[in-house]
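Record pair follows.
FIRST:
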Amino acid sequence: MAALLTAQFFSPAKLIMVDLDDNRLETALSFGATHKVNSSDPEKAIKEIYDLTDGRGVDVAIEADGIPATFDFCQKIIGVDGTVANCGVHGKPVEFELDRLWIRNINITTGLVSTNIIPQLLKALESHKIEPEKLVTHYFKLSEIEKAYEVFSKAADHHAIKVIIENDISEA
């Protein structure tokens, strides 16, 4: 969801949110996404994205999960001269389809939040253009940490977007 909010700074004509969770997709629409695509059937989702982009593919694909399947998906939907922005934290290697992508003249960026955009994010927060508190769907006390992890591990079942954990354990 953070990638969706940040992408809006660049005023894209279309902002396509891709996820497996229909609740997250509906939430994304309420936060400014123009289209939603459920990727539970990746081939169908790829076709849907190409249909939405008149066969071009996307200009920017933001990989925010850090798993090989989502990186692979981004490679399949990126258009000519596009950018795959990889901000997901990967714990496993991914396959890079250089044999297919080299002719498309794509760029790949890696890393977390760029410090160049922090001032813009802070101004958006101050002006309430971005309201991250609306992303919080569940609150837990630190003493309920196991329950919090259970809810977040099954986010789709609990309609969880972001979970806040507050300290209720005093130091002895």
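SECOND:
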Amino acid sequence: MQKNPRHPSTSLIVTTYNWPEALEMSLRSIFRQTRLPDEIIVADDGSTDETRRLVERLCKESLVPMVYVWQEDRGFRLSAIRNKAIARASGEYILQTDGDVILSRHFVSDHLELAECGFFVCGSRVKLLPEATSRIMARGNMRVSLWDLPLGYMPNAMRSRLLRHYFATRYAHSINHLRGCNMAFWKRDVIKVNGYNEDLTQWGHEDGEFAYRLHFAGVGKKALKMGGVVYHLHHKEASRDNEQRHFDELENVKDNKLSWCKNGIDKYLP
């Protein structure tokens, strides 16, 4: 669990909402990283006190500082809680994931391999089926075996340094081909585009809209393949009732090449 002085200071942000059992597995998978982040920030979109108590307990086990950022439950406000967490982050480089994923042991080190000024990075996820999710949570040891993976996702779980660097600028050229549960970016670049758009208040496309604004601000994209994978625990999907509103905003950003949103992170900054 080493830190390399050549690497930027790193904050790992984990978003969560009322699933403490999954959050505990996610946080414990961070504790066992081959390279630890400099801090862990739990970004809580309005969970009950059970989640707060869990974080307080795990703070005592963490080898790096843990910060808890909570907001009142007023519906799905992922963009707002991410902005608040990023504003609180002390790291130069932000790793972003969710509290319903288990991080592979090299998640942090693989991301830092690709960290480069002027780029953001999008990693891969493996979606676990309900049966595999139940088995893993029953075991409670954060280890995901090959037999837990759906056949089609097995290539995503492979790890190769050579292929990781080969694919970095050759894979997933579409800007919004990404997953918000596995991203990394420089804090200064987030501030340059005013963070996530808080006018997007339901599920969907908030990460793609953010990525396109980074693109139009001159920030390049890398793909993290063959490393840095996360395993997504199965759960009921969020409502997509307002997806069209989000899609329209994404198209507006693309059509007008926008790099700034009005309702963003600036309100939380000093």
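COMMENT: Residues 1-5 have pLDDT under 50 and may be disordered.
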